[in-house]
Amino acid sequence: LLFCAQKTALCGNMAHFADDSKEKEHPSRIYFLTQEAVEQIQKNSSLLKTLQASKEMKDYAITYNDQQIIVTQGAHKLDRDTVDRVLQETFGAAHCYSQAEFIKLVDELASIEKSRQQLLKDPAGTLTNILQTAEKGANFIKHNPRGAPRQQWFSIKGDRLYWRDKEKGAPHLNRSMEMKAIVRITPGKETATLKSKKLSKLSEDVCFSVIGVRKSLDLQCKSRDMRDEWFTYIEFMHRHYVRAKKKTVYLTDLDNPLDDDLEMCD
Fold first, then answer.
1. DSSP notation for the chain
2. What is the pLDDT of residues 120-158, one digit of tens each?
3. Average pLDDT over every residue of 177-200
4. How far is CA 77 from CA 29, 60, 72, 228, in A?
5. Which residues fall within 8 angstroms of residue 194, CB to CB, at 6 or more apart?
6. CA distances in angstroms from 245 to 15, 23, 113, 206, listed in the order given
7. pTM
């Protein structure tokens, strides 16, 4: 209920992004772009016309305004999955996000000492800064069930989470985790590794775990703010690249704890 109230309030703050009365008459979907995608449109004025003329989009009205693309249904009901796919193929999956995704991201970042007003003021800048920060990466302590903890540099590029020994090292697939291979992301000390006796004095406020199908990552951050920030980044990327349970890799049929969040961001 609290999340719904926050989301409702946030939607009210974003009223200038869309004409509510028009949206009621003609259901539409709103997409926010990164600075790179915005520049792509500015440099190529025919891009939207080409998009509009495509076989899969010709039945919808497509408009671009204030760093956002609005797709409104015409004679045929709007096919959300098709529109999502076509726009991501056009601009790149990393550069196009639904309004629901952006709202939830802002809501989460605003709880980590971020200014909601600032985040909403420049959506393209907000998305670009997050992607650049995540790709640059940060230093974590990686705890292992056996052996000593190790300093590791983690970063996110596209649909993969990478880790390596040093910041300037090259990323490798064998030291990475694809977003669709993530089963759950848990804050605090919820795994056997982090609950071990040797880590009993470690505060749960600086820890989180990324549970994967074939491997798990138990991470320690420098502060709670850093933990919350990176937890949010990974969840955001996971929701974006894994839109449904059937696209997640599973060893069992257990429900994905992130399914509810994925549904909220449809």
1. -HHHHHHHHHHHHTGGGS-HHHHHHS-EEEEEE-HHHHHHHHH-TTHHHHHHHSTTTTTEEEEEETTEEEEEE-SS---HHHHHHHHHHHH-GGGEEEHHHHHHHHHHHHTTT--HHHHHH-HHHHHHHHHHHHHH-EEEEEE-SSS--EEEEEEEETTEEEEESSTTSPP-GGGEEEGGGEEEEEESS-STTTTSGGGTTS-GGGEEEEEESS-EEEEE-SSHHHHHHHHHHHHHHHHHH--SGGGS--SS-PPPTTHHHHHHT-
2. 999 999 999 999 999 999 999 999 988 899 999 999 999
3. 95
4. 12, 9, 9, 39
5. 143, 188, 202, 204, 207, 209, 218
6. 31, 29, 32, 29
7. 0.81
Find the angle CA(226)-CA(230)-CA(234) to the nearest 5 degrees. 170
What is the pLDDT, as a whole number, of residue 214? 87
Question: Is the CB of residue 159 less than 8 Å from the CB of residue 237?
Answer: yes
